[in-house]
Amino acid sequence: MLAGAFSSVLWTLLGSLIVVAGALVYGTLIRQISARRATAAPESTEAAPRRTFGLPEALLATGLVLFLLMSVTASVGRSPIQLSSRDLVANFLLASFIVFVVAGFLKLRGMDIDSLGGFSRTSLKRALSTAVVLLLAATPLIILTEALTQNAFGSGSSRQEIVDLFNSSRTIEQRMMIIVLAVVVAPISEEFIFRFFIYGVARRYFGIAIGLVFNALLFAAAHNHLPSAAPLFVLGGCFTLAYEWSGSILVCMAMHSLFNSVQLIFLAFPELVQQ
Hints:
The chain has 275 residues and is mainly α.
């Protein structure tokens, strides 16, 4: 009995240290972002100003936000439905369509998407390695948030519908489709929409702090799954901090892809972790 109590205390202490380490990593990112902005030199009036998000982009972002909020509102109070493969494909096609519309609009406006999103600011290898470190630091914060949420509001399932669809898949073709959509399509489209565009516009007019909180709230709400809203808020905030700190959207795209990959691995091999 004494050994069991000692083991429990040891695991609690270890878990607390891991959470503190994750918080310190993101606290360091926040301090570096603040210091960078405090010491940033004003742009030279002689240099050609770089095109950035303006009023037309703000109007487009507002319309997109309203569309997302209308979708969320429409789902409130509605009886849960079983997600099908067709629904999943339709959702990802819609997200891809929005990406193409936004990208086309920015191109017509003469925007340099590569420069704005920092696509060429870092190599894919460096973006991936940075994503691994930042995701490892974010994971204990997400787990702690989910544990606190379940403790406060009950132990209802925090699994999203796509998880149930993956678990109920009967064919390898269906599972492969879910993996491709979740690991490739979703990270690219969602990070482009939420971090690159909506956060970029919000940051331009309201600053980093308000833009980050608003973006994380919208990211959580857009998933239409109340039990996982708080962990998704933390995840969205970590993605935004990673983008702001690195200056490259590739970093949070890689984080998002890795996060979804780990979730699918645990689903495909449930013996690796407890249910």
